[in-house]
Amino acid sequence: MKKSLISIALGFAALSAFNANANIDQQVKKIEQQVIDWRRDFHQNPELGNRETRTAGIVAKHLKSLGMEVQTGIAYTGVVGLLKGAKPGPTVMLRADMDALPVTEKADVDFKSTKTTNYRGVDVGIMHACGHDTHVAMLMGAAQVLANMKDELHGNIMFVFQPAEEGAPEGEEGGAELMLKEGIFKQYKPEAAFGLHITSSLHSGKIGYRSGPAMASADRFEITVHGKQAHGSAPWTGVDPIAAAAQIVTGVNHIVSRQINITKEPAIVSFGKIAGGVRNNIIPEEVEMVGTIRNFDMDNRAQIFEKIKTTATHIAKSSGATAEVHIHEGYPVTINNPKLTAQMLPSLKKAAGNENVVEMGKITGAEDFSFYALEVPSVFVFLGGTPSEQDLNTVASNHSPYFYADESSFKVGTKALSLLAVDYLNAHKR
Predict the structure, then answer these.
(1) Residue 93: which of 157, 49, 42, 148 has the closest Cα?
(2) Where is the signal peptide (predicted)?
(3) Would the CA dihedral through 74, 378, 374, 153 be positive or negative?
(4) What is the pLDDT of residue 16?
């Protein structure tokens, strides 16, 4: 008798899960065109980080129309909506980023952006060249789907629409770090967080995932080498910062190749700019060097910081110069919680189909979703946005002025976000 009761209970649970999946699928199909329309509107009206006023207004109005508790003005323009389910359970978070990039669009689409701005003294276009317009539209769609299931939800869902993922304007804070600093987790801290990013590196309808370190940390360094100006014909009368800088480049490049255990996780240090001097026969007083650090291990990250400082200052000193080193910490490593990733993999497969869910390699790009992942177990996945007939090796990448996101993939992304939330809540009923 006991076994029969258990079997009946399991049968009801399976039936309930099937019905929820069918309901989500039906609703996603119903609002597919609405999601596309939202996306096109956001694409034609892009806004840079911390300036997403119009976008935030549309999002807030939509969430309020769904009966949610809505907070606005977080981290400048951030919006958080809380959907309270009818049944007890945990809180889970879904996140979309809203900002565009200072890129002049060259993609041939009817809803092309013609917006312009002056960015760091240069007149340039504004474009959703990384697909954040699609993220906002898909999460708005998921919010509508899930609000219609409110009576079935075992817990709450936080919808976080975040500004400035691409970085805040100079002199301002922003993004996920500022949203956390301003307390979005204080009142309703989620047990888990999920994010999704469209990518040109996968064909439409496919979902890419990776357990553990998935995206690199991204940090910037500045090294200023101070010497003593002299005539180029008599270098011994001064201290040559250019010669010292050249040795520093070599020394810093040896840090990853000779001093960091890269069998643990890979790392990259790259110089992007070296500037010094104005004339062929004058040894300048100083040289400025800037670069980027990428890696997948937080301990390695700390070691690299220290070794860059040690290497630069000691090499400069050995030639009679001095070096000032400043490390500007950016985004941490984006780490997908292994247990949570394994738990949610079936949800991704329900959304896209078993054959369309693929394990991805590490990505040396960075994401500020990583800040949420430091606070709660999280999973960040990728949605393919390149039409199936196009070659992934030649298609325009994210951040390109030719970047294009195939609209047929949006239904998969909307369904994936919805299922991640519902399946997590169902698996952690109170």
Answers:
(1) 157
(2) 1-22
(3) positive
(4) 56
On whether 222 is known to bind a ligand per the annotation, the reply is no
Q: 76, 209, 331, 372: which one is catalytic?
A: 331
Residue 338: Cβ within 10 Å count: 12
CATH 3.40.5.10 fits 220-331, yes or no: no
Q: Is 130 a known ligand-binding residue?
A: yes
| DSSP states of 326-337 | EEEEEE--EEE-
Q: Where are the beta strands (DSSP E) in 38-134?
A: 69-74, 78-84, 87-97, 116-119, 122-125
Catalytically annotated residue among 165, 286, 367, 407: 407
288 is in an annotated binding site: no
* Rounded distance between C-alpha atoms, residue 218 and residue 333, angstroms: 8
**What CATH fold (topology level) applies to the domain 2-216+336-427?**
Aminopeptidase (3.40.630)
Q: Where are the domains of the chain?
A: 2-216+336-427, 220-331
Judge whether 226 is annotated as a binding position. Answer: no
pLDDT of 3 reads: 58
Across the beta sheet with 192-203, the strand order is 69-74, 78-84, 154-162, 87-97, 192-203, 378-386, 207-209, 357-359
- Specify whether 331 is catalytic: yes
Average pLDDT of the residues of the chain: 95
pLDDT in tens, 196-235: 999 999 999 999 999 999 999 999 999 999 999 999 999 9
Do residues 289 and 276 make contact, with C-beta atoms less than 8 angstroms apart? no
- Residue 354 identity: N
- Gap between the Cα atoms of 127 and 133, Å rounded: 10
Answer yes or no: is 306 a known binding residue: no
pLDDT tens by residue, 165-197: 999 999 999 999 999 999 999 989 999 999 999
